[in-house]
Amino acid sequence: MKNKRNKSLAVIILASGSGVRMKNNIPKQYLKIRKKTLLEENIIKFSSLNIVKKLIVVVNYKHKKYFNSVKENYKKISFIFGSKTRQESCYKGLKYLEKDPYTYVFVHDASRPFISQELIKNLYKKILIKKSAVIPVIAINDSIKKC
After folding, report:
1. If pLDDT is split at 50, 70 and 90, which confidence band does 18 have?
2. Which domains, and CATH codes, for the chain?
């Protein structure tokens, strides 16, 4: 018998990256802003929305000393181990959802904590209309300075 699909939204936060390009001993998702890690900032934003019914955080098993404290503070969230690449880690998150399949799934990078709840809600509204994939397109405000 096939599992019945849950019509609610699940979110997978990818937090298993090593942050090599940053050249820091601490992986980027565990750096702190406003006394919270980037990962926690994302968890708080997504988990406080009533449209999110399931939240999965994909972590690197080598980062236990960083994610254990986060995991202790968020007991209703599922933490699973990722893989060697972002794609494989995302796939593991999707496979985890098979036991209680969701129609709608958002995938978010833990190193991007500045997503607004308004954007999340707008993406959700769009996915309900489009019934396929949605990708946010946001204007870039980078500046280049000559030194």
Report:
1. confident
2. 6-130 (3.90.550.10)
